Known about the structure:
The chain is built from 9 helices and 10 strands. The chain is α/β, with parallel strands linked by helices.
Amino acid sequence: MKIGVYIFATDYTIAIDELARELEARGFESLFVPEHTHIPASRISPWPGGDTLPDEYSHTLDPFVGLATAAAVTSKLRIGTGICLLTERDPIVTAKEVATLDLISNGRFEFGIGAGWNAEEMENHGTEFATRFRLMVDRAKAMQAIWTQDEASYDGEFTNIDAIWSWPKPVQKPHPPILLGGETKYTMRRVMDFCDGWFPRGRAFADPAAEMAMLEGFAEEAGRDPATVSTSVFGAPPQQDFLARCREAGVDRALLVLPPKGRDEVLKVLDGYQPLLS
């Protein structure tokens, strides 16, 4: 099982290029970062993590610019979004950004996606909260068409693209892995429909064997080989026992959380995580 990390990369945390170099030198497999274009000052939507929304949500770097910087100073480290909010993005532009990042990283990019929880944030992008999941799926499938067709077209519920030319195409074929966040039965069916991987949160993954058995059940329901669906546990508890159970259950990757702090504090946490790699 591979071990990577997740961090809110911001304007005040450890520089993302320095972090990427440290991760690769220490043997970590991957670096994932989230996305928030902004946080509305008059936010009403409750934060799923508690009462007070942390400052890092309004300070996140653009994930594609940040990950391009990480890719430029490494050669093995895989990079990914965790998660990219497709509900707030133009699919044609995002398809080109993903393909470009996959190209310049020589096929090291993983595309974690989700629909989001902040209604006010996505409404500023013209997205209706009630239809966000259908919109996310529609845009993801449109992007798959752009990546895999020389003269791409797509006719969906929200996205309609007449024949277009768009290069570069991704290095990874047919495209970078699409990992979908969430744990509901609806998420699982979407994973089986069009995704390459499942991206559950660690706090919802208490029993790895049971969770992986559930994944196999949804794969069987969809007529899909579960071996074609990777599992990356997002925010996995940094505990040897838990990671061992994940490994035994067939989990592909565990992502450990790094604090949104400066260099010294982050490197101290990495030192503490080092024994978990063996």
